[in-house]
Amino acid sequence: MTSKKISIGFDIGSVSINTVVCDASARLIEEWPYHRHFGRTLELCARILSQIEDKYGRDNIERVAFTGTHGKAIAAELNTCFEIETTAQTRGLHALLPEARSVVSIGGHDSALLILSPSDKGFILDDFKLNEACAAGTGSFIDQQAERVFSDVEEFNSISDPQKRMESILMRFMEEGRKSDCPASVACRCTVFTKSDMIHLQNKGIPIRHIISGLHEGVAKNFKSTLVNNRKLLEPVAFIGGYASNLLARKAFERVLGCKVTVPDHYTSVGALGAILNAISNNQGSRVTSDQILQLKASEAFAAIRTAPLSIDLHPFAECGKADGLPSGKDVIDVYMGYDIGSTTTKLVLITPESLVVYKCYIPTEGQPVIAIKKALRNCVETIDVKRVNVIGVGTTGSGREVANLFVGADDVVNEVTAHARGTTHFEPTIDTIFELGGQDAKYTALGNGYVVDFRMNKVCAAGTGSFLEETANKLGIDIAGEYETMAMRAKAPYRLTERCTVYMESDLMSYLQMGGAVEDLLAGLSQAVVHNYLNRVVQDGRIGNRISFQGGPSLNKSVVAAFEKIVGKPIITLPHREVMGGIGAALHAMDEIKERVAAGETFKTRFRGWQVVEQAFVHEEEVCNRNVNCHNQCKLQIYKVGNDEAIYGGDCGMYESRQQGKKRAPDFNRVRQELYFRHMKGLYRVAGEEPFKSQSGKIVIGMPRSLGFHQLGLFWTHLLTKLGYEVVISPETSSEIVDRGISAMTCEACFPVKISHGHAATLKDKCDLLFMPMLIEMESHQGNNAFYCPYVEANTYMLMAALGLDAKKVIKPAIYFKKGKLDMQLSFAKEFRRLGLKFNDAEFSKAYDEATAVTNKFDSEIKRVGSEILKNLGDRRAIIVIGRPYSAYDSRTNLNLFATFSRLGIHAIPQEFLDLSGIDVESEYPNMYWGFGNRILQAAKYINRDQRLFGLYLTSFSCGPDSFVLHFFNHEMNRTRRPYLELELDEHSAGAGVETRLLAFI
Known about the structure:
Blueprint: E1 6-12, E2 16-23, E3 28-31, E4 35-36, H1 41-56, E5 61-67, H2 71-78, E6 81-82, H3 85-96, E7 102-106, E8 111-119, E9 122-130, H4 139-149, H5 154-157, H6 162-177, H7 191-203, H8 208-228, E10 237-240, H9 247-257, E11 261-262, H10 270-281, H11 290-295, E12 333-341, E13 345-351, E14 357-364, H12 369-383, E15 389-397, H13 401-409, E16 412-413, H14 416-427, E17 433-437, E18 442-448, E19 451-457, H15 466-475, H16 483-489, H17 502-514, H18 519-539, E20 548-551, H19 558-568, E21 572-573, H20 581-599, E22 618-624, E23 636-642, E24 645-649, H21 655-661, H22 669-679, E25 685-687, E26 701-704, H23 710-723, E27 727-730, H24 736-745, H25 752-764, E28 770-772, E29 775-778, H26 791-794, H27 796-804, E30 811-812, E31 815-817, H28 822-835, H29 842-873, E32 879-883, H30 886-889, H31 898-904, E33 908-911, H32 932-945, E34 950-957, H33 961-976, E35 982-986, H34 992-1002
Helix pairs in contact: 3-10, 4-6, 6-8, 8-9, 14-20, 16-18, 16-19, 17-18, 18-19, 23-29, 24-25, 25-27, 28-29, 32-33
């Protein structure tokens, strides 16, 4: 034992405790081994400190400092110093790798990027970015995938020490991955989706080594897209945290980041070292003993939060029940067949016109929908006497509905929202709310008079879905079908678990389990966490009625039903056959459609291929679409072939699906609008290509990004600049490449249209002499209201300049207040042109302004005339008015080809710009409306309310600030006439299939 004074740094993170010992001169003298705490933070911290006390002497401990997720509470209780992780890591790294300029830090639940610069006193933290409330791409994320792959390997299950077991699994995981020379493409945005991707790849025969390698590649790409963005990584790049021990991860980061990464000594303890070094230099911190830490176990600050036991009191729980089976006798009966092919399960139902459920089947899809469809049919053939069954109609629903249509031969293909609503109201017409938890999807549906009036679903997070519940039960060795609910309902004091992310939920659960928590209390807590996640992430502020039906696989679990009842405070109705409600709804919807066709005099014969289809061979292929050389989306197509029939899915434009449906198309009014818009600019612009533009006439070439204000004002600006003697170049239509370029360029979070604007500006950056990027502050207003643009639009010019490193001498950026008129704009242009050394003549500008205004007014009159003709010829048919900002409505990538989809479905979808809104007063009722587009949106709402044929579709972008205000008033207007409307919130993660599902449900 030494008599020298020491100081101790603890980094107590989400997964591990890392510890260092320094001497009186702040020199690192020992690093304690990396320890996973499995939730026992106080016990492990006390044990480590006790070991240090034994080795160095308790009286020689001068101070103790903490950092990390769990370090703050301990430091506060012990009245010693705590350092936030970023500061601690910056300080610690300066001692270990002073030449580092960028830091990749990945721990158990957290990841961070630090950008550093040297100073006389160490590092300055110039910039940093932390992961949000999602653990995708962190150490625990990899731990979970490794455990999944090797969960059944006996040699690992025989290891009793949890840390050694995890280390052994990870070692094998890395060994397998290092054998790969061809990483597979694995989605790493959410652990639930990652699992499905991995299963799908395994089912396709992809070797596990390629999947593991691709997983690590995906983590690196996820880090780059979410944290690096447009930040420039300065070398050397340090890699710290527990994940840095992973050799596969190091190689993947080097490939993805395009630079060498350096793993310093003591890479897991950088934060612990920084915390104690700062404490020493600032003479902070106090002595802490192991006994003091153990005493904290009795503190309320460290007590687990418990909740009341679960019970079902407000409505009796109904078992799902068995199928009714065939009636006695030998008579052949007519049935309708319903298929619901979901991402994780496939459901098949046979139901008679009198609602007798003859047969039902619920099996896993396992990433192979056709095989699941065949298996369900085969099960049916083996279970009932199909010779006594006459299939008179087939309906399909679910994400694989078109595949089932091809393989089985369907008479009706319906979206899952409509199918569930149809099935639900058939059994219980009074239902006004549907809660649905599927394998990876979670949906909320509000009904009014039996029709869908609101619908929402989870986005890129699958926390709390059926797959997660089943996997957690399997990990605990518990049967999800019956044992789970029995144990959870016995719980005396359920734990309050986090509900933000599957990784966090599982980590919480396993931590409490390691600490001796009763499995019953943990399962009950998990059921409640699932419900909280669903209500907060899916339902949000949606209306919850008094007649609630809970559906999907988890609805069979009493504890989840009880959790919903407890948290919502209303009866939860569990209908019979609810686990196959989508299939029942598909069958009933097909019955409705067939009866309508027969009533209209049509001779009908089902397209059902017959029971022999179970022996039918099929071919499944994947290829990248290259049909249109001008399209750069690179859609991955799924091609299915059965006999001589072929179906192609996966194209964003819907081109292939439309060829298969054979419906009479409605006009695509976005295309009509765009053709008219650009016709008025014909011959006045060129579209940017790969090479920089050189003017053949010696004129200055001005580039204009095809984003944000362009969709409203591009016509005006093109004429104005051309009349002033300049050549105009615009960026191409938004492509996947432009989207990726924009997202990579972002330095902060913003809506999708703003991200796209970065991509368009980056595309033009080096291809013209000057960039025209006006600061749009206020639009024209025909009423007294304010008419301001969104702050992101107002500031977009400077955002682009900062993100892309644009030289102010290359940017024309006048401040534009349309409401103030021509003279104000003239002064702003004059100021800008003179700043850039460009000639400016007041008379020339005035003339150019007048001509540009005249052309813009002409276009506006023509588009209103087109709109008037559409409504005149509409007759008594219904139409959708698409409401939203031009940059959301008219960019086909932003709106996910919304108008083309409506056209394919035979629905008239009319942009609000086609409506003559003049004379519609909103100022008197909304005198303080701040936003220009807010005024126009409310005018459109009032217009819709005047015409019974019209219904609104509000198109918005995720995280749109102004719409968070305007939507409230829009909803108020729609409620005046109880007119249903659809809100579509889109971003870069939105998928065309999900949008089409919502459109079909709405119409």
